[in-house]
Amino acid sequence: MIKYFPIIPLFLTSLFCFGQKNVKWGSYSQEEEEMRFCSFDPEASAYILYEKGVLDYQYGAFTYKVHRRIKIFDDEALELGVIKIKYNPEVEKISNIEGITTNFPQGKKRSIKLRSDQIEKKDLLPNESEVIIKMPGVRQGSIIEYRYEKKIKELDKPEDWFFQHDYPTQYSGYEQINIPRDFVFFTELQGRRLLTKYKDIGRFDYELTNIPSLSGKIDFINSAADFVEKIEFRTGENSDSQSWLRFKDRYIQSLTVDEILRKGPAMAKLEIKEMNISQDVSTSLQAREIYRKMQQQYRWSGQLSAYPDGKMNSAEINLQLFTLLKQINLRTYVVLLSTPAHGSVHKKFPKSDPFDHAIVKMVFNEKVFYLDATDPFLPFGYLPPYSDQRDGFQIGEDYGWTVTKGHPKGKETTFQVVSFDNGSLHKQYDVKWDMITSARLRTQEQDGIEAHIRNTFSIPATRQVNDYQVLQREDLKKNLTTRFADQIEHFLSGQEKVYLNPVPYTLLLVNPFTEKERFYPIQFELLPQLQFTSIIDVPAGYQLSNLPEASNIALPEGFGRFVYRAIEQQGKINLTIKFELLKNDIPSRLYPAVKDFYDTVSEKCEEVIIFQKL
Fold first, then answer.
1. What is the mean pLDDT of residues 466-494?
2. What is the mean pLDDT of residues 252-266?
3. Which helix or strand (DSSP H or E) is residue 263 part of?
């Protein structure tokens, strides 16, 4: 949830002191010096002890001041000793940089000041540069402290402030002072803590304490950026389509000017004739051939971006795909996306960096295809999870909003045969994976696929996976299929009753939702959709004594369902299970229902079939 606060400030003449915390540069408490872990996040590798951002206006110019103090607990956080500050050299200047690293060998304080040769400037784009600060002597137990000022000639809106980071934070504060009356902007609060604490409007100072890190701490959240505690600002311009029209014009200009060709992209001059595309086939087949050759010849660097970088990022690959499809006269568009990791797009107002990915929309015979060639194993028309079901800004013959939609990934279907021989229990599996999982497994060697099988079907490392086969590995149009066997020795040893749990799926046996309450939605990267069929022999010398009853339950509002049915026919048991969640994003108000649903499913799947000795 985001709250919008329109701000038309008065000219402020004094520093706000309400709730403010001040620290003395280079002076640390005994607690800070001796601290070995964060009390509310003991596994954290670092702890942001203090940070403050202040936007000040004096003598006709803005100054943005930042002061930050961090405690390093272990080597995993040494990366925090390199600070990168981006700025626009046309209208901004970074100055008054200071830094100090303090270590405490044998309890003695040793401080090292930042030198000028440990500060460098780097040009990234024509209007973007970066200051890199390399703090000296950073090691386990260090306290690093730095501050700087950013002088700003022209300011459309204040810079956003994040209270929450990849590491826990003890104190984070933000303040605006001396803001002129005619500087009009809007303030947006995001995050449960901020929205709970600050319900009034027109404030100029904010602070939070004891803020947990969001990254990696909440399960079933794909778009952590949508829930991070932060303040965002936007200009006071009218919220009309002209804002996005201007954005579109700027984006097209950035792609067509000569500077893009000078710095890259590497494939900027690639022509259709260089790819040896078949000429005696339909346009549709040519498009599929272009897509496949792009996947085969140009491997994605792993970097997501809406702008080409000359190093095979996602924009570079997909914009070249767009160019090639245009050369065979197909109706195509560039679609800009914000992936889950980047956060949702607010359609009302374009922000400074609204997108982090670019894909292609192709229309052929009035049928729409969304294409993303970053994944080398996904067939034509399928989208990786970070591209699918996202709000996209379409640029081409016309522009506007669209929702990306790849081909359905399909269900994961498993056929199992259970038999008994010489006292051993034999399980034979035939598993057809969904298209997304198939693409991921195609990147794995046999050990990786086997590890996935063991995790999926609760096969411990102490048991072998036998008769292993991988089918349809090379044919990307088909689902990857694996066949294998699992055997338990001495399962039958003459006992009066035999108890068999027929359900192998780890997903169905363990409820991942254990908290009493949840404040965040439940988000699935891939929707679990399983269809399981098992044919189970009744062991010789035994008869069926107990068979679990049928079950059919559903989540509210059509979010999911579970069906369990077992029957005996001609000395065999036929078991069928369907488990499917139907929507990727379940609101937090339905968390109790989801928790109960998983509890019921796991309890049902723990029920056993009982055989009685004759």
1. 90
2. 49
3. helix 258-263
Q: What is the largest CA-CA distance in the chain?
A: 97
Mean pLDDT of 142-161: 92
Sequence-separated (6 or more) residues with CB below 8 Å from residue 124 = 86, 130
Q: Please, which residues have CB within 8 angstroms of residue 514's CB and are 6 or more apart in sequence?
A: none
Beta strands (DSSP E) in 382-454 are 391-395, 400-403, 412-421, 424-432
Angle at Cα 122 formed by Cα 116 and Cα 127, nearest 5°? Answer: 130
What's the confidence (pLDDT) of residue 21? 67
Q: Are 360 and 334 in contact (CB under 8 A)?
A: yes
Mean pLDDT (whole number) for 95-105: 96
Residue among 390, 371, 441, 379 at smallest CA distance from 412: 441
Q: State how far the alpha carbon of 148 is from the alpha carbons of 59, 78, 83, 443, 528, in Å.
A: 19, 20, 11, 45, 48
Residue 491 burial class via C-beta count within 10 angstroms: exposed 0-12, middle 13-18, buried 19 and up = middle
Confidence of residue 12 (pLDDT cuts 50, 70, 90): very low
pLDDT at 17 over 80: no
Inter-residue contact 406 to 381 (CB < 8 Å): yes
**The pLDDT of residue 242:** 63
All residues at 6 or more sequence positions from 308 whose CB lies less than 8 Å from its CB, including other chains: 255, 260, 264, 265, 268, 315, 316, 319
Token pair 């985001």 is found at: 2
Q: Are 63 and 99 in contact (CB under 8 A)?
A: no
Question: Cβ atoms within 10 A of the Cβ of 312, count?
Answer: 21
Identify whether the C-beta of residue 411 lies closer than 8 Å to the C-beta of residue 580: yes
Percent of the chain residues topping a pLDDT of 70: 91
Q: How far apart are CA 214 and CA 224, in angstroms?
A: 7
**Total Cβ atoms within 10 A of residue 286:** 20
Burial 221-252 (b: 16+ CB within 10 A, else e): bbbbbbbbbbbbbbeeeeeeeebbeebbeebe
Distance between CA atoms of 359 and 378, rounded to whole angstroms? Answer: 14
Residue with tokens 């280079």: 26
Q: What is the mean pLDDT of the chain?
A: 87
pLDDT tens sequence across 43-81: 999 999 999 999 999 888 899 999 999 999 999 999 999
Q: Which residues contact 544 (CB under 8 A, 6 or more apart)?
A: 538, 568, 573, 609, 610, 611, 612
- Structure tokens given for 401: 């909003």
How much of the chain is helix, strand and coil, in % rounded to 5?
A: 20, 35, 45
The Cα 337–Cα 150 span in angstroms is 30
Which of 219, 215, 240 has its CA nearest to residue 229? 215
| Gap between the Cα atoms of 343 and 227, Å rounded | 9
CA distances from 406 to 93, 369, 393, 396, 525 (A): 44, 7, 16, 20, 14
Residue type, 514: T
Interhelix angle 314-327/283-297, rounded to 10 degrees, is 150
